[in-house]
Amino acid sequence: MPEPSATTPRQHFRQLRRELDAHTQRRHARQLARHLNQPLLRNAGRLACYLANDGEIGTQAIMQAAWSHGQAIYLPVLSPLKNSLYFAPFTPDSQLSRNRFGICEPDCSPAQWLRAQQLDVILLPLVAFDDAGNRLGMGGGFYDRTLAFLQHRQHRRKPALIGLAHEIQHSERLATESWDIPLDAIATEQRFLVF
Ligand SMILES: Nc1ncnc2c1ncn2[C@@H]1O[C@H](COP(=O)(O)OP(=O)(O)O)[C@@H](O)[C@H]1O
Ligand SMILES: [Mg+2]
């Protein structure tokens, strides 16, 4: 019999990041932005990012730096038809509205949305990561479905996938499934790790 109250790795790592206080969150976000100031990111003309939620490491400083370098930023939007993501242009003036999960998205016409293939770099939020670049998400599989085309590529690579996390989200080894799309790199408040 499984224990009724046993925590899953997903619950465990979500709890850890939610417990970080506001001061620590701000410090980690600042340190993270410094680790990301490098060519892989600076050379991305089109960069997808996310708005932090549920204790995810913050991205405000990263987006400010990207805008000041003239880079275009996109945020994920849920496709109303498929369980996958498109990417909507995001500027400091963008209006936001909440999707069916309560997550804010740019309020713009679907005609402006890009597909993942059109991006240079995607910065992904995650619940946990391991030493091989595997990513545990919130459990919806949205990024995996959206990025499934990368699995059949001989030579990956566009877009490059960089996971952003607090160091406490590190796990030595995560269980993976056939549909999981591994990351090219991970950035935390402490390091930049390339796979
Ligand atoms: N490429 C895909 N095609 C169809 N279903 C997928 C695909 N990728 C993921 N899924 C579905 O999404 C669900 C959640 O995926 P999972 O990897 O557990 O979540 P997450 O990546 O958010 O941690 C799985 O049940 C899986 O069936
Ligand atoms: Mg997955």
Question: If you had to describe this structure to a student in words, what would you say it looks like?
Answer:
With 195 residues, the protein is an alpha/beta fold. It has a single domain, classed as NagB/RpiA/CoA transferase-like (Rossmann fold), CATH 3.40.50. Helices cover 22% and strands 22% of the residues. Strand 1 (46-48), helix 4 (60-68) and strand 2 (72-78) form a beta-alpha-beta unit. Helix 2 (22-35) packs parallel to helix 4 (60-68). The site of magnesium ion has 4 residues, from loops.
Strand order in space, largest sheet: 3-2-1-6-9-10-11
Shape: globular
The arrangement of helices and strands along the chain is HHHEHEEEEEEEHEEE
- Tell me about the biggest sheet? 7 strands, mixed
What is the domain tally?
A: 1
Q: Give the mean pLDDT.
A: 94
What binds here, in terms of ligands, is: adenosine-5'-diphosphate, magnesium ion
Annotated CATH topology: Rossmann fold
CATH architecture: 3-Layer(aba) Sandwich
Helix fraction by DSSP (H/I, runs of at least 4): 10-25%
Low-confidence stretches: none
Structural class assignment: alpha/beta
CATH superfamily: NagB/RpiA/CoA transferase-like
Number of helices: 5
